[in-house]
Amino acid sequence: MSWSVRRWQTVAVAIRVFLLDDHAVVRAGVRRLCENAGDLVVVGEASSGSEALAQVDRLRPDVAVIDVRLGDGDMDGIDVCREIRSHHPSVACLILTSYTDDDALARAVLAGAAGYVLKQIEGNALVDSVRIAAGGGRTIDERTVTNVVEALGTRNDAGGRDRLTPREREILELISLGRTNREIGEALFLAEKTVKNYVSNLLAKLGMARRSEAAAYAARLAERRGGRAGDRPPRRDEGP
After folding, report:
1. CB 217 within 8 A of CB 225
2. How far apart are the first and last CA of the chain?
3. What are the pLDDT digits (tens) for 155-203?
């Protein structure tokens, strides 16, 4: 009886991990690392984005370890991260990739990823990253993130903000913090679809195609104001 109780307690506190990678060998390697860690358990895995979203919706893991580049072309890992964070904010996403890509790093941050690590990482370091993500922490260096995002903001000047409505400026500030559409909607008491429309409109006004560009733009404006992007969302009656 005591053995059963101890066994139940061990399973109850284990970190539930989901794996998304289009290479079975990589999934097997990460699974082995998790199993050997003792406090991690792999509850599912997938080779495509659509399959992953369906399984995460059902399994609700603590952490999803996601490859950036997926072979089937339906979506990349960062798209999957954004969808998971939008629909299941309690699921932390750890991006695992073979490539150093500043744009992908910025997109990962804006999608709400808790970490961005290379596949060349030591096994123990990867396990530690999963633990940190499960505990609500982040393994992405904040200074690196700031530098990367600001480096992407080269397309617009401060005058572009004048074309935004007060609501669009609020949403731009929240985008700069990496908030998903759902999180923005909750903060501003708007429907997620309404937020999506606002985002599309503000990107069009700024001549941008990606949220990462909008975040970089907001970071540059904050720097010129002597602050930091997201320090203080503008009041609704506030001017440009």
Report:
1. no
2. 68
3. 444 455 667 888 988 998 888 887 888 999 999 999 998 998 888 888 8
Task: List the 63-67 sheet strands across, edge first.
Answer: 40-46, 15-20, 63-67, 92-97, 115-118
Residues 106-133: tens digit of each pLDDT: 778 777 888 988 888 888 889 999 999 9
Q: For the range 209-214, what are the long-range contacts, defined as Cβ-Cβ under 8 Å and sequence gap of 24 or more?
A: 210/107, 211/107, 211/110, 211/175, 212/103, 212/106, 212/107, 212/110, 212/149, 212/152, 213/152, 213/153, 213/155, 214/172, 214/175, 214/176
Q: Which residue has the tokens 């961005």?
A: 116
Which residue from 197, 209, 135, 145 is spatially nearest to 171, judged by alpha carbons? 197
How far is Cα 71 from Cα 47, in angstroms, rounded to an integer?
8
d(CA 11, CA 82): 29
Q: Which residues are paired to 20 by β-bridges? A: 46, 66
Amino acid symbol at 39: D
Whether the CB-CB separation of 23 and 69 falls below 8 Å is answered with no
Report which residue type is found at 34: C
The tokens for 5 are 């109780």
